[in-house]
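Complex record, two chains
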Amino acid sequence: MIITNIEKIPGRTIKAELGIVQGSTVRGKHIGKDIAAFFKGIVGGEIKGYSDLLVEGREEAIARMQEDGKKAGADAVVNVRITTSSITGGAVELMAYGTAVKLAAAENA
Amino acid sequence: MNIADKFLNDYQRALSRAPEWVQDLLGGTSVWDVIGTNGLQTIAIGVVGWTIATLFERQHLKQMGMREQLLHDIKVSTNKEAGADAESGIMIYGSVVVAHDFFRTLVIQFRKLIGGNIKAYERLVARGRREAFIRLREDARLRGFDKIINVRFAGSHVAGRFISAVEMVAYGTGIKTRQ
């Protein structure tokens, strides 16, 4: 499945729009990572544990969005937006949403 | 027994289980002694943290400058036009979570009382965004894209259990141009 954050897909033609699809996830890190983050917080800088957490979470959200799209029978999702929000200490919600579309058969493939 | 004595009692009982050097470091005979030594240690840790953080920041800025030089040939734009010669494109992103050292967090708390520009925060956010943008372009390079269009920046506050940090994301559509 192709995902872009523009209205079209370069090199392909969109046949039909299938509506909004979305995927979201709420993730937390185990307490050990939080404690490591606390110590990292003494000197500041990048908090690797949380960076990884958010990357994993975002991948998961996008994967769920793709699943949602597959259920709707889509070939691609366009105009995707991603958001992050902090739910409570140690947990974040990541969300990805976009428009599911059906593509015309590839001309040059 | 008043509250101060009770506190001291509890504190000393808790400390008696700790190794001897910890007792030397944090112990005290009166409440003010305990608060005084702990306060001094807190400030000492803070100052050391601040120094290291400043060094890290300087190093990070230098390192980012070098990485940016390698990425100068990747075209970036906020336009949505892929161009007629675009072959394929998918969404890519780069993200980073950055936090302040704990002493500066404390200073910022006081700075917020006055309001206005909070320089330390501006620097942190700018640094995070730059790092996220570099990661976006590095990802594009890795996947063989020569152009990124419709780039968007987003940021959010990430609250850990003990610290709070900011997350910066940059995302866009990587475009491979037909040769």
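Note: The first strand of chain B starts at residue 75 and ends at 76.
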